[in-house]
UniProtKB/TrEMBL annotation:
Residues of the O-antigen ligase-related domain: 194-339
Entry protein name: O-antigen ligase family protein
Keyword Ligase on entry: yes
Top-level lineage group: Bacteria
Subcellular location: Membrane
InterPro entries: O-antigen_ligase-rel_domated, WaaL-like
UniProt keyword Transmembrane helix, yes or no: yes
Matching Pfam families: Wzy_C
Entry-linked PANTHER family: LIPOPOLYSACCHARIDE BIOSYNTHESIS PROTEIN PA4999-RELATED (PTHR37422:SF13), TEICHURONIC ACID BIOSYNTHESIS PROTEIN TUAE (PTHR37422)
A molecular function GO annotation: ligase activity
Residues spanning the membrane: 35-57, 64-83, 89-107, 119-138, 191-223, 235-256, 330-350
Membrane topology, record value: Multi-pass membrane protein
Keyword terms, alphabetized: Ligase, Membrane, Transmembrane, Transmembrane helix
Length: 420
């Protein structure tokens, strides 16, 4: 019975991660599934997560107690409808925060890091196969058509993730996850998943994703091979690598001297005028912002004015920068809380990554690096319900838990630890 219950738990996590990654969204399988089915999946994931967190309430309390700042940030996001420009919109979408938080708490408390990486890899591989099926059986779902609103890239694959950039981003996450799979997994499974992800990434035509994937693999190898455990310089060196990655990826993707033949421009495809306008508006409400999602809400005058600043009249759905958007949502108070939580998790991930030879313990470090770099030109933090924020708080919750450590012997090294 325990065996079957564990299988059911893993299946639930796969379903939840798939839903949060947009597989059942209105631009993906939501096009062919009835709204009743999608709504049922949403409330099943939310309700079951809440129930399971309550069942394992002792672990939940311990995990929350170790992450007070993250809990405070979640509460601020939930209560932001009090000062929101569109309180009804913010209040209605507060369910997303509750769902992501409860799901992450359950995932972090019931699965160790090795199991988390394995389940995430399985979920993304299923997404890869579903994307192949969608592209050939339901091309209107899996491939951008010339009739789409985004007519600049007909023929680009979007799989079951709604948009080519989302598809490319998920394939980056897939490639990194398979690259850091535990050694217990078969060699064939690991490298098949990794190669499959790269092929689908190419079919998405997302150049940012391709650049980001190779930068992340390079950074993982850097983390793996250059271990200066016991020296404080390691923290500053790796934070420098993180910041350098945030600069390199946008430059390699958009910089006009390098990519003039790709039709890009030096304003990051129109992002900088939007950022300038949004920063100006942020200074009008700096402490608590405009409320979660309110600045870019449907019919928001700020979103309309941002499009006018761009000179096209296009109404932006978000600020194309996750850090800017979280500041617009929750103000500088929320943004500083997020930075504190992020860098605390990053330092913990560094300590863990340098204390083991096992690649799966580098996954949190790789994911936090991926999240930071990808949010420079995209908004994948607290916006809507999404797998990125879910995995971020899962990583933060997991890294705060106490673990048993055993020393491992490495020639000429004295301070390495093996995390179990």
């Amino acid at each position: 019975m325990k065996k079957y219950l564990r299988i059911a738990e893993k299946a639930f996590i796969v379903l939840g991660l798939s839903f949060l990654s947009g597989v059942f969204g209105v631009d993906s399988l939501g096009l062919v599934l009835s709204s009743a089915v999608v709504t049922f999946i949403r409330f099943f994931v939310w309700g079951m997560s809440t129930l399971l967190v309550a069942v394992f309430w002792k672990n939940t309390i311990i995990t929350c107690r170790n992450n007070i700042l993250l809990c405070i940030l979640s509460v601020i996001a939930l209560l932001s409808f009090f000062w929101s420009e569109f309180p009804d919109f913010t209040l209605f979408n507060s369910r997303d925060v509750l769902m992501m938080t409860s799901f992450s708490l359950y995932f972090a408390t019931r699965f160790n890091q090795k199991q988390q990486v394995q389940v995430i890899a399985n979920t993304l591989l299923i997404g890869c196969f579903l994307s192949i099926i969608a592209a050939f059986v339901l091309p209107s779902v899996g491939i951008h058509q010339a009739s789409d609103a985004m007519v600049s890239h007909p023929g680009a694959w979007k799989g079951v993730y709604g948009h080519k950039n989302n598809f490319g981003s998920m394939m980056v996450l897939s490639s990194v996850t398979f690259f850091t799979l535990p050694k217990e997994n078969s060699f064939l499974y690991k490298w098949f998943g990794f190669g499959f992800s790269l092929v689908l990434m190419l079919l998405s035509t997302s150049k940012t994703s391709l650049v980001l994937s190779f930068v992340l693999i390079f950074i993982i190898m850097f983390y793996k091979n250059f271990r200066w455990h016991g020296k404080i310089s390691v923290i500053f060196t790796n934070i420098g690598v993180l910041l350098l990655g945030c600069i390199i990826v946008p430059l390699l993707t958009y910089w006009v001297e390098l990519l003039t033949g790709l039709g890009r421009d030096a304003t990051f495809t129109g992002r900088t005028p939007i950022w300038t306008y949004a920063l100006g508006r942020l200074m009008e409400r700096p402490l608590l912002g405009y409320g979660r999602g309110a600045f870019w809400a449907p019919k928001s005058p700020y979103a309309i004015e941002a499009g006018q600043a761009l000179g096209t009249g296009w109404v932006a759905p978000h600020g194309h920068n996750g850090f800017l958007d979280i500041a617009l949502d929750l103000g500088l108070i929320g943004f500083l809380l997020f930075l504190t939580i992020y860098f605390t998790a990053f330092v913990r991930a560094l300590k863990q990554g340098y204390a083991t030879k096992n690649l799966e313990y580098l996954w949190p470090l790789a994911y936090l690096t991926f999240l930071s770099i990808n949010n420079v030109t995209e908004s994948i933090l607290l916006r809507g319900e999404n797998v990125y924020w879910t995995l971020f708080i899962t990583v933060a919750f997991t890294l705060s838990q106490r673990k048993t450590v055993q020393p491992i012997n490495i020639p000429n090294q004295k301070n390495y630890l093996h995390v179990t």
